[in-house]
Amino acid sequence: MSRRDPSGQTVKGRSSGFNPKNRFLELYLEPVEDGPWYDEFENGTFSPLGRKVPTTFFIDTSKTILAKNDSPDIPFTYSLNPYRGCEHGCIYCYARPSHEYLGFSSGLDFETKIMVKRDAPELLRETFMKKSWEPQVVSLSGNTDCYQPAERKLKLTRRCLEVFLEFRNPVGIVTKNALVQRDIDILEEMAKLNIVSVLLSITTLDQELARKMEPRTSPPFKRLETIELLASHGIDVGVNASPIIPGLNDEEIPAILQAAKDHGAEFASTTIARFPYAVKELFIDWLDREFPLKKEKILSRVKMVHGGKMNSSEFGKRMSGKGEIAEVIHDLFKTNVRRLGLNRARYHLTVDHFRRNPRQIEMF
After folding, report:
1. Any idea which architecture 57-363 has in CATH?
2. What is the C-alpha separation between 52 and 46, in angstroms, rounded?
3. Residue 15, preceding bond cis, omega within 30 degrees?
4. Radius of gyration of the chain (CA)
5. Rounded to an integer, what distance in angstroms lies between the CA atom of residue 83 and that of residue 164?
6. CA distance 124 to 289
7. Does the pLDDT value for residue 2 go beyond 80?
């Protein structure tokens, strides 16, 4: 049984309406059906319905910083996540179930219980110093947004970028937050060496839809402004028109690509949304609240691109879908990409400038 606010009210500033059950835990606390919503993470106190849920930060003591993947449909081997969980709270986020490994939920917990890898820059430096490290493009990030709100004060991503520049190891950044503008001074230096690429994700140009679907991200116009600013500083920048949710934002593909091109984007990518594990519950609940009249149409089309399900784990198809609707979406994307000249490959960064021990080199 899912933990819901019995009154049907939503939590302010969050896309998740509840905490679905953690599939790894046998012990599970449920609310009193006729009473207020009990939050076991707030010192065992009762909180008013429809309340704002504060974000809590925890220290992550991981001893390594780069996550390795061997998925054939992901264009990089290593990713760096300075945080676990993401306060942006995108309702469709495929990374939500990873929070269950920490004993949290894919729902509100993913948005409000953030793990902070405070040693990320030092761990990255240690990795690059090892003789076993083969210089290659690292993705920032694969399972969270490296520029989520906490980054404004904690500056872990900025400090990691300083390490990337110090060792001259290439990095590809993916974000929905205009906060990346803060680090233009570092990115500009990296761009001169051709070791950085930035991808701004734009799911919709509709500010109201973005507010509901991605409540704590930068609004669409700020992301376009960011593309323009990065491009004006000679930084390699593109647009990620993702994820596409059939029946909800697929018709916006031409407009998103056109706007990105007009603001200086040089390349584009896209994926089709998938809803693994509890993300399915969360998304259906969100549709009930935000788009009840469109709900059945959207769910029907999502299932049509995933073989009758809400999710697919099939490599090569899980992020692109299959079937007629998926083909229409990708044809629409490809046609507009060609028309606008956005079909350059995303990663063309160099490892030629990498240096194993920059401090020692500087001494000589």
Report:
1. Alpha-Beta Horseshoe (3.80)
2. 13
3. no
4. 21
5. 17
6. 42
7. no
- pLDDT tens-digit profile of 256-275? 999 999 999 999 999 999 99
Q: DSSP for 121-168?
A: HHHHHHHHHSTT-----EEE-SSS-TTSTTHHHH-HHHHHHHHHHHHT
Question: How is residue 2 written in tokens?
Answer: 């899912």
**C-beta pairs of 219-225 under 8 Å, 24+ apart in sequence:** 222/178, 223/176, 223/178, 224/200, 224/259, 224/260, 224/263, 225/178, 225/263
Q: Any idea which of 1-5, 24-28, 266-270 has the lowest mean pLDDT?
A: 1-5
Distance set, CA 127 to CA 130, 205, 231 (Å): 5, 39, 31
Structure tokens that stand for 277 in this block:
């594990």
Dihedral angle sign, alpha carbons of residues 269, 170, 176, 259? negative
Cα separation, 238 vs 221, in Å, equals 15
Contact predicate 156/121, CB 8 Å: yes
User: Where exactly are the structural domains of the chain?
Assistant: 57-363
pTM of the model: 0.86
- Give the integer Cα–Cα distance in Å for 135 and 356: 9
Within the chain, where are the H helices?
A: 108-112, 120-129, 151-154, 156-167, 184-192, 207-213, 220-232, 253-262, 278-290, 295-304, 324-340, 358-363
CA–CA separation, 296 vs 193, rounded Å?
A: 50
The closest alpha carbon to 239, from 224, 251, 249, belongs to: 224
What's at 346, amino acid-wise?
A: R
Query: What would the pLDDT profile of 48-67 be if each residue is shown by its tens digit?
Result: 334 578 899 999 999 999 99
- pLDDT tens by residue, 68-84: 987 777 777 999 999 99
d(CA 141, CA 93): 13
Tell me which residue has tokens 């570092």. 186
